[in-house]
Each structure stands twice: as structure tokens, then as C-alpha cells.
């Protein structure tokens, strides 16, 4: 019985050790994809996290928090449906591309849009 418990514990430890790098790579891949999608579709209005239409509604961390846009779901909703001067990208971008853009925006806002 002890051998079984130790074997299961060893398996769990191995899986835990190898799962973190895989998850980190997936997050990095999503952010890298988001950077490409952002560059092709969003940068014209939001270069460097700014907003050429409404300067106060930029993509910087403080503004995202102020306007309740500091979550993946909120950004996905905004990009998908649009609002005000922001056009809808539903049908123009795939759902996975919109998720990638949201990940990229949150990542960049956390870095204050500095590489």
C-alpha cells in the first residue's frame, strides 16, 4: 500500500513540475498571437496603449480599471460588440483572435505598454 501511495505521489509531483512550463508557454503564445492581431487591427487607434479618438479611454492600467475594462471578459465583450466609437470586430476577427488580443492588452497594460 505504501508503494502505491509513493508511486501516486511521485506521479503527481512529476506532472506538477512539467505542467507549469507548458502553461507558461501557452500564455506566451497567446500573448504573442495577440500582439500580431493587435498590430494588424487595433494599433491604428491604440498605438502604445493610447486612444486617438478618446484620449482618456486608453488601454493603460488605470484607465482600464476606471472604466471596468480590466478583465479578459470585459475586453472580449468590447472588442466583439464595440461601443461608441469602437467598432465591433465580430465577424472580422475569430473568437480565438479576440481572446488573444485581450490577453495582449492586459499583459501590456501591466507593463505600462513598455516592451
Automatic annotation (TrEMBL):
A GO BP annotation: photosynthesis
Binding residues annotated for heme c, in chain numbering: 42, 45-46, 86
Main localization of the protein described in the UniProt heading: other
Coiled-coil segments: none
Residue ranges constituting the Cytochrome c domain according to the UniProt record: 29-109
Processing and modification events after translation: Binds 1 heme c group per subunit.
Superkingdom of the source species: Bacteria
Annotated keywords: Electron transport, Heme, Iron, Metal-binding, Photosynthesis, Signal, Thylakoid, Transport
Keyword DNA-binding: no
Molecular function, one GO term: electron transfer activity
Keyword Membrane attached: no
Cellular component terms per the entry's GO annotation: plasma membrane-derived thylakoid lumen
Function: Functions as an electron carrier between membrane-bound cytochrome b6-f and photosystem I in oxygenic photosynthesis.
HAMAP family reported for this sequence: Cytc_PetJ (MF_00594)
Subunit structure: Monomer.
Protein name per Swiss-Prot or TrEMBL: Cytochrome c6
Species assigned in the record: Stenomitos frigidus ULC18
Lineage of the species this protein comes from: Bacteria, Bacillati, Cyanobacteriota, Cyanophyceae, Leptolyngbyales
Gene name of the encoded protein: petJ
Amino acid at each position: 500500500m505504501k508503494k502505491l501511495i509513493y508511486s501516486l505521489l511521485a506521479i503527481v509531483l512529476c506532472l506538477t513540475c512539467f505542467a507549469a512550463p507548458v502553461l507558461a508557454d501557452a500564455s506566451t503564445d497567446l500573448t504573442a498571437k495577440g500582439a500580431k492581431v493587435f498590430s494588424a487591427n487595433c494599433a491604428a487607434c491604440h498605438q502604445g496603449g493610447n486612444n486617438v479618438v478618446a484620449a482618456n479611454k486608453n488601454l493603460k492600467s488605470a484607465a482600464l480599471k476606471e472604466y471596468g475594462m480590466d478583465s479578459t471578459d470585459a475586453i472580449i465583450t468590447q472588442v466583439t460588440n464595440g461601443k461608441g466609437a469602437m467598432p465591433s470586430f465580430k465577424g472580422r476577427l475569430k473568437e480565438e483572435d479576440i481572446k488573444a488580443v485581450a490577453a495582449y492588452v492586459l499583459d501590456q497594460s501591466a507593463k505600462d505598454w513598455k516592451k
